[in-house]
Design brief:
This protein has 427 residues and is an alpha/beta fold. The chain is globular, with a radius of gyration of 21 Å. The strands form three sheets. The chain has a seven-stranded mixed beta sheet, sandwiched between helices. It contains 14 helices and 14 strands. It folds into two domains: 164 residues, Aspartate Aminotransferase, domain 1 (Alpha-Beta Complex); 250 residues, Aspartate Aminotransferase, domain 2 (3-Layer(aba) Sandwich). 38% of the residues lie in helices and 15% in strands. Bound molecules: pyridoxal-5'-phosphate.
Length: 427
Amino acid sequence: MNIKTSEELFARARKVIPGGVNSPVRAFRSVGGTPVYMQSGNGARLIDADGNQYVDYCNSWGPLITGHRHAAILAAIQEQLGRALTFGTPCEQEVLLAEYVIDLLQKRIPKSQIERIRFTSSGTEAVMSAIRLARGFTGRNKIIKFNGCYHGHSDSLLVKAGSGLATLGIPDSAGVPAGFTAETIVLPLDDDNAVAEAFRQHGSDIAGILIEPVPANNGLLLQRPEFLSHLRKLCTDHGALLIFDEVISGFRVAPGGAAEHYSISPDMVTYGKIIGGGMPVGAFAGRADIFAKLAPDGPVYQAGTLSGNPVAMAAGLAQLKLLDATAFNHLEKLGARLETSFNKLSLKWQASRIGSIFWFHSGQPPRRADQIDSGASAIYAKFHKTCLENGIYLAPSAYEVGFLSTPMTETDVDQLVGIAGEFFRNA
Ligand SMILES: Cc1ncc(COP(=O)(O)O)c(C=O)c1O
């Protein structure tokens, strides 16, 4: 496989960009080899700098649910480019996206409490702001998070965070003073008693529970619906806020995200990825009484130079409007085909899936980070290479999930299952 241009670019990048990359997992450290430099994308396909083609199951880590360069998204961006790139003032596009999202969530999430939304430029900012608001609203300090859930790289949440940290084997990041995480309580997923016990001990000082309702940053650790309901009940009973981090699951596992899928109404929810249509957008949303505490209405400060950027808002709205019942049915059909046809092979490795998110793992589907087979990474590295050589681009880490997109076909999925089946049969 010729990746000469990628190799040259990476060598140059390493001289000016730390590790050669602008986000750690991109460096291919856990799968080995040189990161592939992509040059263009079209629908479900990528072309790299040396002209190699791939079916894209990374999809920019989730945002591209409608694939690359969907005509409707490009048209919306073009239209806005004719007006301005950014104003730093309020603009119509942010109102349109906010109205669309709130209306969608109120229709799709049973008893939705999502009444206000504030846009940011990344998922990290969205979650960081949501927990600040939870603390400001409740007047309490502690936040519960779960081992293996990643919520972006803000200081207080970089504890047992999965994602790139799982790949790199760093449970905590250097540079984060212990005091910054002292108010973060880390608990195992899937453990009702551990959460109940935390409330027994600290109940009056717990501002909220933060969880990826579909934990998808340390493999895919699908939770029992009863566990999520238990969290809802504990929060209600103790006056704490339930915060769903739906940066990955939002608008993907259902139009209304995991809140709709599990019929659980969180007090606050965070978004990123899909909501920006491929542009940098995050958002946090929730009850009106909570958001009354956010600046400028209230004392909890939060801001952003490019927040609500009109080009990004236009792209996000265009993508969300594409996600109709036909799109969701197609993604569900593809996902089910991938899961059942691979698992029918009855190999040691299996596919876990929810909607258009999938993950290959060894053994039974784990629910907690500590149940993941630690030997899987070495095997995955070889699988990743095999896929690249066969024109399939997967995320370069055993702990990262794969994403389907609407332009994919049954033939694409069958090709992946064929290659995965052959590889894992001999692994
Ligand atoms: C669940 C979750 N929360 C937050 C983030 C952080 O988002 P961003 O990378 O846009 O800062 C991510 C990123 O992958 C995520 O998966």
